[in-house]
Amino acid sequence: MTTQQQINIAAPRSGDIDPKYIRQSASSSSNWEMFKWLFMRISGPILLVLIFTHLFTNLMLGDGVHGLNFGLVAGKWASPLWQIWDLVMLWLAMIHGTIGVATIIDDYTKKDRTRVAFKVALYLASITIVVLGTLVIFTFEPCMTDAAGNLLDNSPSFCFNQ
Amino acid sequence: MTTTLEPTNNTEEVGAVESFTVTMQVRRYQPEFHEEAYWDTWTIEMYGTDRVLDALHKIKWEIDGTLTFRRSCAHGICGSDAMRINGVNRLACKVLLKDLDLSKPVTVEPIKGLPVEKDMIVDMEPFFQSYREIMPFLIADESREPTRERLQSAEARERFDDTTKCILCAACTSSCPVFWTDGQYFGPAAIVNAHRFIFDDRDEGGDMRLEVLNDKEGVWRCRTTFNCTEACPRGIQVTKAIAEVKQAILARNI
Ligand code: HEM
Ligand code: SF4
Ligand code: FES
Using a CB-CB distance cutoff of 8 angstroms, which residues of chain A are in contact with residue B220? Predict the structure, then answer.
């Protein structure tokens, strides 16, 4: 695979061909498709670790599923580790899932208009979820009180020491 | 005369080839007579040494001359008779009837994803256009024209040996679900034939071919389904070749 870009030959890409056989999509010289492909393969294994650790800590450790309540989530988001963890999980899963579904839309839609409509809906949904999710992770108030000023049931223990 | 030359009962002959009845269910498309494609079914007597191609010949030569299909060498060399046999892409000349489940009809359809013109005949032009686009010929610097044969070591030849075996039958490309979606994907066969030159150390057009395949419709559309490897009548490790081209593009850009 010796490399030399400027070799002058009569090849299809040199323009020496009946235009009716030229591929429809203009060839992009960017590496966008390559980066998408790479991103799927890098984010996949990272998600594998993030998701299964997340499931294990939430569902197996401590009281297991019986300990799942407002307090557990509130307690986790008080810790920067779980904030970062959930943030990375949210972003990676959403970008990974959006690229994946966009691929499926490209596969199954026949008309350009259907394709654009589905993709706009997909991107809007993804952006909404990523923005809302990020906002919640960073602005979450763990020690919420009811109208009477009392801490909510199941509030994380550190709220009671204030 | 007590001895006659009358034929004896076949099955009692020493070394006689077994015979059986086969039901052939063939997808027909005859645009001059019917707008829609339909199925035709024939039950015929065939022998243990016969292939699907022989059954099609028997139908065409003895029963229905309108049955249309391509074949040339009849020995797995020319790549003309790829078709969907019992739902998988095979060369009709390489499938022995006795290896199929003959208790059910044997279905024969044209390969998928290319426009059907008549019966098994599809328009191969989009397939060959992708092949042309990857420049399937040796590209060497003209200023260094050799005065003798371009030598190559056995190891360097081995590097791309597998992909030299392609006969351009289109069994792989027309078995690929990504190709079926819109027919725009370059397809496994084009990538296999690009691989054959990209990894040839006498060739100097590797970068141009990688550029061609680093396209929206290039190697990145491959989803590693392995249908192509399963379909290839030459046993080429098609999916592996595609993965190697992906790696070469990555290595060049990162
Ligand atoms: C658990 C760890 C995960 C791994 C190891 C993983 C791995 C992968 C890989 C390698 C691909 C590319 C397939 C291809 O191009 O052939 C892919 C596609 C995809 N992934 Fe994931 N992924 C994971 C989690 C997720 C999650 C959480 C979502 C949803 C948010 C998701 C949604 C998708 C979708 C929709 C596709 C496209 C499917 C297709 O191309 O047919 N994946 N995944
Ligand atoms: S790679 Fe195999 S299946 Fe594909 S065109 Fe070549 S010989 Fe046929
Ligand atoms: S007829 Fe030539 S490959 Fe089958």
Answer: 33-34, 36-37
